[in-house]
Amino acid sequence: MDFINELLNGDFMPHGHCLLWRTDLLILHVGGDLLTFIAYMLIPLGLIRLVRARDDMRFDWMFLMFAGFIFFCGATHFLGVVNVWHGYYYIHGIIKSATGLISISTAILLWYLLPQAISIPSKRNMQAKIAELTQAEKQLAESNLRLEAEVKKRTAQLEKMATTDELTDLINRRETMRVLDIEISRASRQHAALCIMMLDLDYFKAINDTFGHQIGDKALKIAADCCKDQLRKTDYVGRIGGEEFLIILPDTDIDRATELAERIRLSLQQYTTANNDIPVCTVSIGVAPCRKTDTSASLIQHADETLYKAKAAGRNKVCRASD
């Protein structure tokens, strides 16, 4: 009990006596201590609010230690004001000692954490890193665009390879059959005319045997070009066998199809006759219209039968089927 009474004893000589109770000195010391006390109370409150608002901070407890240090520093200044009129020097001394302890603890921890704090990237480093990441993202986006373009290009190439005859650059048998199915369905749905031609190069085996396969391949390419040159954009020509071609003619009746077949026959004969690099090539053509009950198989069979009639008539001829 005596210890507590002594601790709370304020009968020591007030600090004001040392200032001779001069108004100017009192204003300077009391005013300075009060302003410092207010500031030291506001700083811990700000630090506590910061720690509560930012739960992602790495050293939040260090901020709390610093807040405690500032608080006790403020308390010593408050006691300095009180001691101007009352001499609570025991309490003042205890608060100063506590301030010293928390100050030295804070200083030790600060030096302990200093390497980690220094390792935290600066604003400049963060901006540089962001710039690097932005550049890397841009390069990645450009690479993705190039890759997408390459994939599209490669996909188009694969699609072409899957649907195109490598030698003549015409559509292949599978694609020709697919187109024929579509056109038969369309013609039936729209009640439109549709004709096909079956073409077969005459004596092609003899050309291969006599002049070699390179000349034979050249003859196939020339035949393909002669067909394409005479067709419309809406027509189709495909290579469906060794020397066999199938031409699909949407919205074309049998008379116009027969006329077109005759032009193709003459075109091939005249071109190869005028060209000394290749033997004269002729073609037999069977023309058939699509009937209401036709499927792709029956229509091709109809044209094929007509083609063999042209061959039986001496080749290098166009033969048309009856409707």
Report the strand count: 5
The secondary-structure class comes to alpha+beta
Specify the helix fraction band. 55-70%
Query: How do the SSEs run, as a string of H and E?
Result: HHHHHHEHHEEHEHE
User: Which word captures the global form?
Assistant: rod-shaped
Second CATH tier, the architecture of the largest domain: 2-Layer Sandwich
Q: Estimate what percentage of residues fall within beta strands.
A: 5-15%
Number of helices: 10
- Sheet with the most strands: spatial strand order: 2-3-1-4-5
Q: Might you state the CATH topology name of the largest domain?
A: Alpha-Beta Plaits
GO molecular function, one term: diguanylate cyclase activity
Protein name: diguanylate cyclase
Coiled coil: 123-153
Transmembrane segments: 26-51, 63-82, 88-114
Core attributes:
single chain; 323 residues; alpha+beta; Alpha-Beta Plaits; five-stranded mixed sheet; 5 strands; 67% helix; transmembrane; ETR1_N; coiled coil
Describe the structure.
This protein is of the alpha+beta class. It folds into three domains: about 1-120, no CATH class; about 125-165; about 175-320, Reverse transcriptase/Diguanylate cyclase domain (Alpha-Beta Plaits). Helices cover about 65% and strands about 10% of the residues. The protein has ten helices and five strands. The chain has helices at about 1-5, 25-55, 60-85, 90-120, 125-165, 175-190, 205-210, 215-230, 255-275, 295-310; strands at about 195-200, 235-240, 245-250, 285-290, 320. It has a five-stranded mixed β-sheet, with helices on both faces. Helix 10 links the parallel strand 4 (about 285-290) and strand 5 (about 320). Helix 2 (about 25-55) runs antiparallel to helix 3, helix 3 (about 60-85) runs antiparallel to helix 4 and helix 8 (about 215-230) packs across helix 9 (about 255-275). The longest helix is centred in the middle third of the chain and has 41 residues, at about 125-165. It is rod-shaped and about 145 Å long. The model has no long low-confidence stretch (mean pLDDT about 85).
